[in-house]
C-alpha cells in the first residue's frame, strides 16, 4: 500500500507537468482525479488570479478556494484515521523525483547536513530520471559566513554528491541562490496581500515585547495577538509607501490547523493554532517559510526531504500552499543526527565538519554508506557500495524516527570494507577514479608516514623502541617517486586491508618499508630459533629466479615440498619465513607468500644472509 501511495503521487507529478504545458483538457481531468486519490485535493484551475483580473474572476477564485479548502479538510480528517505506517521512499519510483538540498551558508557542511543532502540525492537516484537540486538559502544576512557557500560546494563534490541544477551550473528554474530571487518573493507576498491572506505589521520590537509581557502576565499564550491584522488595506499601503518600517505576516487563522501526512512521520497536526507568522522581514528579505514554499513550487520540487526540525513548521507551509492555490509536494522529515548528549549536530560543532574526515583519509563512499546506514538500513548481503547508485540500490529506504546517535566504530567498519574491496581488485580493473582515491587516501598518506618516521618528525614510540630507523630503509632507496608509490601500493595490496590507517600500517608492519634492524633480529633469534630445515630450503630456492614470478606460489610450493617429507608442518614454515622477512614470529599476521611476492628475491636473499650470519654467531657462542 505504501509504495502504491508513492506511485500515485508520482503520477500526480507527471500530470502536473502535462497540465502546466496545457497540452490537453483530459490531462486536467486526470490531474484532479489522481490528486484526489493520492492526497489533498488540488484544483489546477484555482491559481491565484492576476492583479488585473476582473471581479468575477476574483469571486470565482475565492469560492473555488473555499471549496478546495473544505475538500482538503475532509481528506485530511480521513487521512488522520489511516494507520500510522510511513510511506516508503525510493521504491518502485518509476517516475522522476525532483528533490533539493537547501543549506544556508552560515557555516560548513557537517555530517548531519551531508546525510540530508545524501538522502535527497538517493531518492532522485532511485527514481527514474529526475533531478537533484542545490539551492543556497542565504536569506539570513546576519549569519552569513564568507567562504561557506564555496566550501559547501567543494565538500559536497568531495563526497561525490553532484547536482543537476544549482547556483554554479544554473538550470531551468534559477537563480538558485535565494538572495538573487528577492523580486520573486516580493511578487508572491504582494499576491497574498492582495488576496487578504497576509497583512503588514507595523509593531515595533518594543511594542511586541510589551504585548508579550502583558499576555504572559494574563496567563495567555504569548503568540502575536494580531494587533495589525485589522489595519485597513488603504491605510496599510499609505504607511508602507511613506517608508514606515514593517514586516508582512500571514493570516494563519484563515487556514485552521493544517494537517499533513509525512512520508516518514505519518499524519501530523499541531495542537495549537499557528500565530500570524512573518513572511517578509523589515530588511525586505523573506523568511525561510515563504522563500522555501515559493522556491519549492517554482522549482517543481516533488519531494521535500529535510531534517526533522522542520516538521513542526510544515503546517505553516501547507497553509501557504493552500493560500497560493498550489499543490503541496511530498514531505519526508529525516531523524536528526545527534551528539552523544542528544543535541542536534550543527555547524557550530567543529568536530563533525566534513573536512575532518577528508583530512583523516576517510573514503567518501564509505562515509556516504555509513551516513545512509545511520537511521536507515541496507538490504542483506550487499557488496560495499562503490557509487551513489550502489548506495541507492542497497538501501531499504525505511527510516528510524527521532534523533540518531553517531556510531563512529561503524564508520571504521565501512571504511575498511570499502578500502579492502578496492585493494582486492587487481590493478588493471581499477577504474581511474578509484586508482586516484587509493593514491590520495592510502598510498600518499603511507609515504608521508614513512617520510615522517625517516626524518624523525614524529615520535613513534613503537618504531623508535624497536630501532626501525636504521639507514637501510627499503622504500627510500627506491629512486623515484613513482617507483615508491608503486611499491607502497603493492604493500597495501599485500596486506589486503588488514590495517586501520596509514600510520597504523607503518607502525605495525615496518618490515614492509624498512630492513629489519640487527637488534630486532638478535632479540627474536635468541628467543626462538627458526626451523633450520626451512632456512635451508629457502636458501635453495633463492637462486631459482624462474620461481619468483607472479604471486610466488611456486616458491612456497618448492619450500613446502622440500620440508614436508621431513615432518615440518605449515605453521613452522610460516613462522620461520616471518622471522627472516619481518624479524619475528610475533608480527601481526602476514601471509608468507604475499611477503615473498612483495619483497622480491633480492631482498629475501639480503635478509636471509643476515639471519644465517646471526644464527652462526649464536651457534658459536
Ligand atoms: N544534525 C542534523 N541531522 C540531519 N539533518 C540535518 C542536521 N542538521 C541540519 N540538517 C539538515 O540539513 C539541511 C541544511 O541545513 P542547514 O544548512 O540549515 O544546517 P544546520 O546545521 O541546520 O544549521 P545551524 O547551524 O543553523 O544548525 C536542512 O535540511 C537541515 O534540516
Describe this structure in words.
There is one protein chain. The protein is mainly alpha-helical and 621 residues long. Helices cover 50% and strands 7% of the residues. It is built from 23 helices and eleven strands. It has helices at 2-20, 25-38, 55-81, 111-125, 148-159, 182-194, 205-217, 233-241, 288-298, 314-324, 354-359, 364-373, 388-394, 408-424, 432-455, 461-465, 481-495, 502-508, 518-527, 532-541, 553-563, 570-582, 592-620, and strands spanning 98-101, 131-134, 198-201, 247-250, 259-262, 266-269, 278-280, 303-307, 330-334, 337-338, 404-405. The strands form five sheets. Strands 3-4-7 form a three-stranded antiparallel beta sheet. A two-stranded parallel ribbon has the order 1-2. Helix 19 packs across helix 23, helix 20 packs across helix 22 (570-582) and helix 22 (570-582) crosses helix 23 (592-620). The longest helix is centred in the last third of the chain and has 29 residues, at 592-620. It is elongated and about 110 Å long. Residues 103-104, 106-107, 112-113, 115-116, 306-307, 309-310, 334, 336-337, 344-348 line the site of adenosine-5'-triphosphate.
Major sheet details: 3 strands, antiparallel
The CATH homologous superfamily name of the largest domain equals HUPs
- According to CATH, what is the topology of the largest domain? Rossmann fold
- The largest sheet has its strands arranged as 3-4-7
What fraction strand?
5-15%
The tally of structural domains comes to 4
How much helix, percentage-wise, in residues? 40-55%
Q: What ligands does this structure carry?
A: adenosine-5'-triphosphate
- The CATH architecture of the largest domain can be named as 3-Layer(aba) Sandwich
The class by helix and strand makeup works out as mainly alpha
Number of helices: 23
Runs in which pLDDT lies below 50 for 5 or more consecutive residues are: 1-88, 469-473
CATH class term of the largest domain: Alpha Beta
Could you tell me the mean pLDDT?
A: 79
Distance between the termini: 84 Å
What is the 3D shape?
Answer: elongated
What's the alpha carbon Rg, rounded to whole Å? 34 Å
What is the number of strand segments? 11
Amino acid at each position: 500500500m505504501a509504495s502504491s501511495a508513492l506511485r500515485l503521487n508520482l503520477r500526480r507529478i507527471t500530470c502536473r507537468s502535462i497540465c502546466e504545458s496545457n497540452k490537453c483538457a483530459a490531462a486536467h481531468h486526470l490531474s484532479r482525479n489522481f490528486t484526489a486519490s493520492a492526497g489533498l485535493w488540488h484544483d489546477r484551475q484555482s491559481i491565484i488570479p492576476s492583479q488585473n483580473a476582473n471581479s468575477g474572476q476574483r469571486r470565482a477564485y475565492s469560492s473555488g478556494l473555499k471549496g478546495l479548502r473544505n475538500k482538503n479538510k475532509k481528506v485530511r480528517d480521513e487521512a488522520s484515521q489511516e494507520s500510522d505506517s510511513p510511506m516508503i521512499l525510493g521504491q518502485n519510483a518509476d517516475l522522476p523525483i525532483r528533490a533539493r538540498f537547501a543549506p544556508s551558508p552560515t557555516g560548513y557542511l557537517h555530517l548531519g547536513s551531508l546525510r540530508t543532502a545524501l538522502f535527497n540525492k538517493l531518492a532522485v537516484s532511485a527514481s527514474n530520471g529526475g533531478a537533484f537540486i542545490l539551492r543556497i538559502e542565504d536569506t539570513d544576512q546576519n549569519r552569513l559566513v564568507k567562504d561557506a557557500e564555496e566550501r559547501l560546494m567543494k565538500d559536497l563534490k568531495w563526497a561525490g554528491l553532484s547536482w543537476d541544477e544549482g547556483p554554479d551550473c544554473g538550470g531551468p528554474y534559477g537563480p538558485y541562490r535565494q538572495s538573487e530571487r528577492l523580486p520573486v518573493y516580493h511578487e508572491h507576498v504582494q499576491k497574498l496581500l492582495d488576496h487578504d491572506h497576509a497583512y503588514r505589521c507595523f509593531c515595533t520590537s518594543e511594542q511586541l515585547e510589551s504585548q508579550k509581557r502583558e499576555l504572559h502576565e494574563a496567563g495567555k499564550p504569548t503568540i502575536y495577538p494580531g494587533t495589525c491584522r485589522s489595519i485597513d488595506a488603504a491605510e496599510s499601503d499609505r504607511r508602507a509607501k511613506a517608508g514606515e518600517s514593517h514586516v508582512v505576516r500571514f493570516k494563519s487563522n484563515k487556514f485552521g490547523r493544517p494537517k499533513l501526512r509525512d512520508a516518514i512521520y505519518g499524519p501530523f497536526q499541531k495542537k495549537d493554532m499557528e500565530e500570524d507568522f512573518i513572511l517578509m522581514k523589515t530588511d525586505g528579505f523573506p523568511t525561510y517559510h515563504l522563500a522555501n514554499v515559493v522556491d519549492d513550487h517554482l522549482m517543481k520540487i516533488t519531494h521535500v526531504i529535510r531534517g526533522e526540525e522542520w516538521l513542526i513548521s510544515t503546517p505553516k507551509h501547507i497553509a501557504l500552499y493552500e493560500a497560493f492555490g498550489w499543490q503541496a509536494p511530498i514531505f519526508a522529515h529525516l531523524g536528526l543526527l545527534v551528539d552523544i548528549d542528544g543535541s542536534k549536530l550543527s555547524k557550530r560543532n567543529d568536530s563533525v565538519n566534513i573536512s575532518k574526515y577528508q583530512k583523516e583519509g576517510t573514503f567518501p563512499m564509505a562515509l556516504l554508506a555509513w551516513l545512509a546506514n545511520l537511521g536507515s538500513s541496507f538490504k542483506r548481503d550487499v557488496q560495499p557500495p562503490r557509487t551513489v547508485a550502489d548506495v541507492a540500490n542497497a538501501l531499504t529506504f525505511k527510516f528510524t524516527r527521532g534523533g540518531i546517535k553517531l556510531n563512529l566504530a561503524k564508520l571504521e567498519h565501512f571504511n575498511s570494507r570499502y578500502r579492502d574491496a578496492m585493494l582486492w581488485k587487481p590493478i588493471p580493473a581499477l577504474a581511474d577514479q578509484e586508482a586516484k582515491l587509493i593514491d590520495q587516501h592510502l598510498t600518499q598518506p603511507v609515504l608521508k608516514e614513512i617520510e615522517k618516521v625517516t626524518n624523525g618528525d614524529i615520535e613513534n614510540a613503537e618504531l623508535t623502541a624497536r630501532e626501525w630507523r636504521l639507514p637501510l630503509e627499503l622504500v627510500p632507496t627506491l629512486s623515484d617517486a613513482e617507483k615508491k608509490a608503486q611499491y607502497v601500493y603493492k604493500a597495501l595490496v599485500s596486506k589486503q586491508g588488514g590495517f586501520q590507517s596509514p600510520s597504523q600500517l607503518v607502525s605495525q608492519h615496518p618490515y614492509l618499508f624498512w630492513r629489519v634492524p640487527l637488534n630486532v633480529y638478535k632479540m627474536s633469534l635468541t628467543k626462538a630459533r627458526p626451523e633450520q630445515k626451512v632456512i635451508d630450503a629457502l636458501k635453495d630456492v633463492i637462486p631459482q629466479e624462474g620461481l619468483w614470478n607472479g604471486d610466488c606460489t611456486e616458491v612456497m610450493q618448492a619450500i613446502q615440498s622440500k620440508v614436508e617429507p621431513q615432518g615440518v608442518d605449515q605453521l613452522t614454515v610460516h613462522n620461520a619465513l616471518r622471522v627472516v622477512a619481518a624479524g619475528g614470529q610475533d608480527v601481526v599476521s602476514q601471509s608468507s607468500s604475499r611477503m615473498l611476492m612483495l619483497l622480491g628475491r633480492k631482498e629475501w636473499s639480503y635478509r636471509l644472509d643476515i639471519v644465517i650470519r646471526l644464527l652462526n654467531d649464536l651457534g658459536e657462542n
